[in-house]
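Expect chain and fold; thus:
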Amino acid sequence: MIVRWEKGQDYYLVHVHQDMFGDWLVTRVWGQSGTQYGGLKHTLVNSPEEAAILVDDVRHIQESRGFHKVLEAKAPEEIPAEFQDTMKSELPFND
């Protein structure tokens, strides 16, 4: 699952995925579009259900800060073309 929020030039992106060992990760990426400012954080979770709780917490925080959701996709290949180029510099996806 991939969810993206934006406010002006600022963005916040969450990617829920499994690593090559089968562990569940929640990757959070934030910054300003068109700049190198931002950060990245990986959080190991025990299950997809725990990941969903963390994503909901992030949603609540971002919406309280004035961000609005602009994208929600179940997999990277479902991301619309208008977001793909921008997001490649923010979070590496497998081709």
About this structure: Helices lie at 48-64, 81-88. The longest helix spans residues 48-64. The CA atoms of residues 1 and 74 lie 4 Å apart. The radius of gyration is 13 Å.
